[in-house]
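As a warm-up, study this chain.
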Amino acid sequence: MNSSDDAHTDLFSIKLSSFLHEIRLEKKAVRERAFFLCEYCYSPERLSANRFTVDHVIPRSLNGSDDLRNLALACRRCNERRYNFVAGIDAETQEVVPIFNHNP
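Now compare it with the structure written out below.
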């Protein structure tokens, strides 16, 4: 490796470190906003055997963004059950409604 390669590697490492730091801060913000509760079923993370995940309300597969308003703290069960569904049928009105809206 020459000095140019070393500089490129150092720059990449700095950018990667900064990117990972931003992701950690974003996840922390989502967790704190949710008060460490699943934003779908409201179960507390402290009683779970698994750490909750940050879920995309509108999944990336459906062009959902990484904006904090599109992120929700989810327990494993809710995250797996929801898959990439974003709407359902209301049992009383039979209308199509969003599954989740934490920003009413």
